[in-house]
Amino acid sequence: MPAYKDKAKGTWYASFYFENWTGKKEKKMKRGFKTKREALEWERTFLQQQTADLDMTFESFVALYAADMKGRIKANTWGTKEHILYKKLVPYFGKRKMSEIHSKEVMAWQSEMLNYRDKNGKPYSPVYLKTLHNQLSAVFNHAVKHYNLKANPAAQVGNMGKAKGREMLFWTKAEYLKFADAMMDKPLSYYAFEMLYWCGIREGELLALTPADFDFEKQTVSISKSYQRIKGQDVITDPKTAKSNRVIQMPAFLCEEMEDYIKSLYAVEPTDRIFAVTKSYLHREMDRGAKEAGVKRIRIHDLRHSHISLLIDMGFTALAIADRVGHESIDITYRYAHLFPTRQAEMADKLNMERKGA
Fold first, then answer.
1. 8-12, 139-143, 153-157, 282-286, range with the lowest pLDDT
2. Is the dihedral of CA 237, 243, 249, 250 positive or negative?
3. Is the pLDDT of residue 231 over 80?
4. How far apart are CA 174 and CA 161, in angstroms?
5. CA atoms within 13 A of residue 121's CA, in its CB half-sphere
6. Backbone angles phi, psi at 227, to 5 degrees
7. Of residues 92 and 148, which shows the higher confidence score?
8. Which pTM does this prediction carry?
9. Contact indicator for 321, 332 with CB cutoff of 8 Å
10. How many CA atoms lie less than 13 Å away from 30 in the CB half-sphere?
11. What is the pLDDT, as a whole number, of residue 34?
């Protein structure tokens, strides 16, 4: 494993042959190292990754994991994963060999995360702690499944934190109408919140809408994409799940509102975004409207919960609601069970009659 000096530039470079995944010999070269040691270290790490040698460091394996996973998941999801990998995991485990990370090292890391406090003395939330552990476990699971690591030390230790997030909040129809009235001074904001409340769509689905998604004769809107702002760039991705691809029937009044709104947009093309703002804009408008209307501040996503709550109150089934909002019916039943009217008394009466032979 020699390294070579570039006499003209005064730097070092690594140049060697390796066997690629097809069994064919390939030449690899990388220049610009300050020292011979750095060049040799880079060559060693590269060859370990090619052969999946688990004597490589955690940091090196994370690079391998990133190469394997990055193209398989949505860009915004990868962005979250990447932040956790390089800000919360690599700084702690980075220089340790994958084969030498055991449950005791994971327990020590957990203790550090559990004891963390920011400058205001605030710890990580239980949900975030669980997310951190899940990502660490995902890295080791990948090594077990694809690179012959014997066991996942994160799974052996068990999780930390809790899965439950913040409590769902809802607006009643009366609360929403007060809020909507406060939004009428800004048409873009008003119509955006109308779509969110009366169709139950997600934030990203709203911000990806174009004129071509609307069929005003059939009074429908097609949900087939999602908007994200990633590293300062506007990115359109597939919706959250396969079930999220759906066609929603709009109420007639909303159909009329949206047709008027789109007609009011100057020189809008069929594929242009009709709500050309970011999520932070909607959050600021939510703050403003809630304050002006005198209603409790809820999250943007809670408008989706409010829509589902309204449909349950109107007597629709979990299956019908799931089709509309792009969920599985089991998820609606589980997450919103407390909102469905109880029929326990009716069941008991019928069982009583059954027993008596009535």
1. 8-12
2. negative
3. no
4. 37
5. 0
6. -100, 140
7. 92
8. 0.66
9. yes
10. 13
11. 87
For residue 277, which phi and psi values (nearest 5 degrees)?
-130, 180
Centre a 10 Å sphere on the Cβ of residue 351 and count the other Cβ atoms it contains: 10
CB 225, CB 236: distance < 8 Å: yes
DSSP for 117-176? --TTSPPPPHHHHHHHHHHHHHHHHHHHHHH--S--HHHHH---S-S--SPP----HHHH
Other CB atoms within 10 A of residue 231 CB? 7
pLDDT tens digits, one per residue of 55-75: 788 998 998 898 888 877 777
The dihedral of CA 38, 39, 42, 43: what is its sign?
negative
Distance CA 42, CA 64 (A): 14
Q: Show the tokens assigned to 4.
A: 């070579």
State how beta strands 25-33 and 220-223 pair: unpaired
| DSSP bridge pairs for 30 | 14
Q: Residues of the chain with pLDDT > 70: what percent?
A: 93
19 Cβ contact list (under 8 Å, min separation 6): 25, 26, 50
SS3 314: coil
| pLDDT for 338 | 72
| Burial of residue 333, with CB atoms counted within 10 A of its CB: 0-12 exposed, 13-18 middle, 19 or more buried | middle
Buried b (16+ CB within 10 A) or exposed e, 148-183: ebeebbbbebeebbeeeeeebebbeeebbebbbebb
Average pLDDT of 319-326?
90
Nearest to 307 by CA among 168, 171, 165: 171
CA atoms within 13 A on the CB side of 3: 20
| Token output for 151 | 């066991």
Mean pLDDT is lowest, of 82-96, 241-255, 322-336, for 322-336
For 55, list phi and psi in degrees, rounded to 5. Answer: -80, -5
Q: How far is CA 278 from CA 89, 178, 232, 234, 283, in A?
A: 30, 24, 11, 9, 9
The residue with greater pLDDT, 142 or 49, is 142
